[in-house]
Design goal:
single chain, about 120 residues, mainly beta, seven-stranded mixed beta sheet, four-stranded antiparallel beta sheet, about 0% helix
Length: about 120
């Protein structure tokens, strides 16, 4: 099972982007899902998380501008990013706490996506 993230790209200051992330393969249950980002030369930081029940949490730098949501039927998490700033430029990673079918049984662990680049120009 892999997490497939998409939607990154180049956008101007004040613009918007929407990221999506979903697992490939057989994810049986998905609990918390989230987005993190890592800018060049910096540590990875929390952007937003959402529980299976819809409770959300945001990093201070994105509150009021970004919205995380999920479609449990599609097993997909989204990140709507508005009012983008150059300091939002980073590689964005999705993650999910999932139970997956390994063939020989099931296993619960946290999976990370491959990252998608978001670049905001000034």
């Amino acid at each position: 099972v892999q997490l497939q993230a998409s939607g990154g790209g180049l956008v101007q200051y004040g613009g918007s982007l929407r990221l999506s992330c979903a697992p490939s393969g057989n994810a049986i249950s998905i609990w918390d899902m989230g987005w993190y980002r890592q800018a060049a030369g910096k540590e990875r930081e929390l952007v937003a998380t959402v529980t299976s029940g819809g409770n959300t949490k945001y990093g201070d730098s994105v509150k009021g501008r970004f919205t995380i949501s999920r479609d449990n039927a599609k097993k997909t998490v989204y990140l709507q990013m508005n009012s983008l700033k150059p300091e939002d430029t980073a590689v964005y990673y999705c993650n999910a706490d999932m139970v997956v079918d390994k063939g020989w049984g099931t296993e619960a662990q946290v999976y990370w996506g491959q990252g998608t680049q978001v670049t905001v120009s000034s």
